[in-house]
Write a structure and sequence with these properties.
This protein is of the alpha/beta class. Helix content is 41%, strand content 13%. The protein is built from ten helices and eight strands. It has helices at 7-18, 22-31, 38-45, 49-61, 83-89, 112-123, 141-149, 162-165, 177-182, 202-219, and strands at residues 65-69, 77-81, 97-99, 102-106, 128-132, 171-174, 189-190, 223-225. A four-stranded parallel β-sheet has the order 5-4-6-7. Strands 1-2 form a two-stranded antiparallel ribbon. The longest helix is centred in the last third of the chain and has 18 residues, at 202-219.
């Protein structure tokens, strides 16, 4: 019996060929938690820019990695894994990371971070809260409506200032490019989720919800509860 070499087989072969290098496997491991700028990725892996560019070009050609322009600093881009490709590899995460609490951060703490914290509470035993670098007066009605459409309990809280919430033992995940770039010295995990507020329609909020829900399902198994630490207020300040 002849077995046909289909386009899908060729695609899978290209993916495995692209990952047949230790540095590219390390890139996958670094991007499992969240998105990174090329410069930050190079710093983490100790790779010179020309070698990193070669690896990323190989991975992009294989459909493993895509780039997205920052909504904050338009000169910056973020690298993210293509979820469908990575999920098909069935490879385990690099290792569990202890976390006392997850803090989701966006600028206004009115939509993405609120939805992320609520989704996380349903997926993980690690506690989660949310905060903003410049909190709004209230949760955006679009976020409330989105949570209701998806049957997600969304606490009726007032958006909070990050410096009033954050302590040194927290595991920070930014879900907003502007907040991530403002908090550069914190080096948090970053999910580059487009802001649904400017469009202010159900489709934009549902797209943000779906992206955050996917990220929560991908990342939550990688964190495990840490022993409670004495709450020490974060003293790093904001840029």
């Amino acid at each position: 019996m002849n077995v046909e070499v289909t386009d899908e087989v060729r695609r899978r072969a290209a993916v495995h060929a692209a990952l047949a290098d230790p540095s590219r496997l390390l890139i996958v491991d670094q991007l499992r938690l969240g998105d990174l700028s090329p410069s930050r990725l190079g710093d983490l892996l100790g790779l010179p820019s020309n070698l990193l560019a070669h690896h990323l070009r190989t991975m992009q050609d294989a459909g493993l990695v895509v780039r997205a322009r920052s909504e904050g600093d338009r000169r910056r881009s973020y690298l993210r894994l293509v979820p469908e490709v990575v999920d098909s590899l069935n490879s385990p995460p690099a290792g569990l990371r202890p976390a006392r609490r997850v803090v989701f951060v966006c600028t206004a703490n009115s939509a993405r971070s609120q939805l992320a914290a609520a989704l996380w509470q349903q997926a993980s035993v690690v506690p989660a809260v949310s905060a903003g670098t410049h909190p709004a007066a209230k949760i955006h009605p679009g976020a409330v409506a989105t949570a209701r459409r998806h049957g997600l309990p969304l606490p009726a809280t007032v958006p909070r200032q990050l410096t009033d919430v954050l302590v040194d033992a927290d595991f920070v995940i930014t879900v907003c490019d502007s907040a991530h770039e403002e908090l550069g010295e914190l080096e948090p995990v970053h999910w580059s989720v487009p802001d649904p507020v400017p469009a202010a329609n159900a489709a934009a909020f549902d797209a943000a919800f779906d992206e955050i829900a996917r990220r929560v399902q991908q990342v939550s198994p990688q964190l495990t509860t840490a022993a409670p630490a004495l709450p020490t207020p974060y003293r790093g300040g904001l840029r």
